[in-house]
Amino acid sequence: MDFASPPFIDWQNPPAKDELRLIPIGGLGEFGMNALVVHTAKSLFLVDCGQLFPSEDQPGIDSVIPDFAYLEPFADRLDAVLLTHGHEDHLGALPHFLERWPVPVYGTAFTMGLLEGKLKEHDLWSPRHMHVVEDFGQVKVGSGEIRAEWIPVTHSIPDACAIALHTPWGVVVHTGDYKLDATPVDGRLTGTARLTELGDKGVAVLLSDSTNILNTNPTPSEEVCREGLRDALRKTKGKLFVATFSSNIHRIQILLDLAYEEGRKVCLLGRSMERNVGVARNLKRLALPDDLFIEPKEVPLFPPSKVAVLCTGSQGEDMSALTRILKGEVKGLKVVDGDRLVLSSRAIPGNEVSISRTLDTAARLGAETTLEGLGPVHASGHGHRPDSAEMIRMVRPRHMVPVHGTYRNLKVHGQLAASLGYPKERILFLDGGECLQLFKDGKVAQAGSVPVGKCFVDQGVDHMVDARVIHDRLILQEDGIVIATLVVDPDTGELAAEPSILSRGFVVLSDDQAYGELLRATVKNAFDEAPKEIRKDRDLLVEFLRQSLRRTIRKTTQTRPVVVPMILEAKPVNEPPAAAAPVKLKKKR
C-alpha cells in the first residue's frame, strides 16, 4: 500500500525537496471558485483562478473569490497561472489575483481573448505576461522541473483543455470542465488518444470534474440543441428571444446558422454577448455572414417573424439585457403578443426564483414561454457519469481525486471509481484547503489543511468586503437597525441629557412608544452601571452598551437588529434659551 499516514503540514514553510503539494483553495465542496495550488521546493503556480457568483444571502456582493492566504508566505516565488478554459468560475478572480501578483498567465487562444477584455476593464492588461498555448502545446513552468501540457476537451466554450502536469513525482492530469462530445459544433474533439497514451505510460493522480456525476444518462451532444432551436424559430409567429450564456459560442453558432437558414435577422444584446462574439469572430471560432446582424433600433423595420434576438439574462440577472428588454428600457425592442422567449441554459442553483420571475414578466407581456412541442434547447457542457467512467478508463491513474462539486458529488464520483476496481486507499477525497502530498518514492498522503476562505468583492466600493459586513447587511435586511445616542459631559463624564433611540426597519419600536422608553431606560442604566475602567475606554463602553441593548431586545422580541450606540460630548443645557423678541412689521401705506 502506498498511502502514507497524514502528518499535519507546516504550511508556512516551503515543501521539502522530495514533496509536491496539491492544494485546492476553491472548487471543492461547492460549484465555482475553482483554483488549485501546485507547490514544490522549486515551483509554485495555480491551475485556474475562478470566482463564485454570490447567493441571495450575500447582499450587495458582486463576486466571491478565494482567499489566497496560503500564498502570502511565498509571495516572491509565484511562477504562473495556468488556465483550463475561459468560464468565470475558472478565471473570474484573476483581476484581483494579478493586482497582487502580476505573474505570467497561460491559456488557449479563446481563453486569453476573454481574459484580455476582463483585464483591460481593470487596467491590468500586460501583453508580456499573457501567453497563448496551442492544443497539445507544452510549457515549462517556473524553474522548469514541471512541464504543463494542454489537451483539448469538449465543453460549452471554445478551446477548453485538460492540463497534464509532467513532474518528477509522476504525471498529474487535471481534466478541467469537460464532456466527451463525439459531434462537437466546431469539430474540435477531445484528445482521447493523448489521454490514453498518458494512461499507458502511467499517471500518478487524476483530478476529474464531478459536476454532472449524479446523472446516469448518456451525455447529449451540443448538436441536439439544433432541433429545439429550429422548432422555436419555425413555430414562432413573432420575434424569437433567446437568452443563453454569452460564452457558449457553440450554442450561438447553432442559433446564427438557423436564423440565417430561416431568413431571420439577429439582434445581439448584452455587453458580454457582444464582446464574446467579437472575440470569437476575430479568432475565427465563429462563422457567419456580415449582413446577419441588426441594431435594436432597426428591429421595427422588419416583420416580427423575420427577427431573432440573442441576449444575456438566462438566469434572470437584474442588470442583464433580457431584464432591460422586459422593462421596456431598450429602444426599438418590445415584447408583445406572438413573441416567444426561450431560455437556452440550465438554471444555476439559487437562481430559480429570479428565472421564474423573468418568465412570468414575459408571459404578462404576451410572449410564449413554455417549451412544449419543441426539441431540446440546452445540453450541458459537463459530462454525465458514463463520461466520467470513460475518463477513468482512459487515464487509468494510480490515485483518483474527484474535484468540482459538492461533497455529495465527490462521494458519488469516488463510488464510481470503486465500481471500476479502485481500492479505497487510492480514491482520495479533498475539501477546500486540504493538502495532497506526492513523494518521489510513489507515496501519497493527505496531510491536513491550510488556511482557506472566501473574499467578497463589492465593485461599488472597489475593494474586498469583510464577512462581518455581509452579516450586518443580512441583519439589516431581516430585523433593521436601532441607534442609541448618548450625550456625555466631557468634564464630569456623566450624561448631559436623556438618551435618544432611533430605529429603521425595527417595527416594534416604531409602533410602541412604551417600548422606546424601555430601551432608553436600558441604555441609561447600562451607562450608569458601567465599571470605571469601561467608562474610561470609549470602545469598551460602546460595546458594553451594545450588549446591554441586544440582551433586552432579544429577550423581549426574539429579534436581532443591528445595534449602534453613539456617544457624543456636549455641556448640559440647564435652562432654555431666551425667546427672540418679536419683529414688528410696518404696514405699507
In short:
The protein is of the alpha/beta class.
From the structure above, extract its key features.
589 residues, alpha/beta, Metallo-beta-lactamase, Chain A, Rossmann fold, Ubiquitin-like (UB roll), 8-stranded mixed sheet, 16 helices, 21% strand, disordered C terminus
The CATH superfamily of the largest domain is known as Ribonuclease Z/Hydroxyacylglutathione hydrolase-like
**The top level CATH class name of the largest domain:** Alpha Beta
Please name the CATH architecture of the largest domain: 4-Layer Sandwich
Average pLDDT, to the nearest integer? 88
Q: Total helix count?
A: 16
Overall form: globular
- Could you say what the CATH topology of the largest domain is called? Metallo-beta-lactamase, Chain A
Order of strands across the main sheet = 7-6-5-3-2-1-18-19
Structural class: alpha/beta
Question: Major sheet: size, sense and barrel closure?
Answer: 8 strands, mixed
In helices, the fraction of residues equals 25-40%
- Count of beta strands: 24
- Portion in strands: 15-25%
- What is the gyration radius calculated from CA atoms? 30 Å
Count of distinct structural domains:
3
Could you characterize what this model shows?
By secondary structure, this protein is an alpha/beta fold. It is 29% helix and 21% strand. The strands form five sheets. An eight-stranded mixed beta sheet has the order 7-6-5-3-2-1-18-19. A six-stranded mixed beta sheet has the order 8-9-10-11-12-17. Strand 11 (170-174), helix 4 (192-201) and strand 12 form a beta-alpha-beta unit. Helix 5 (225-234) crosses helix 6 (249-261) and helix 14 packs antiparallel against helix 16 (538-557).
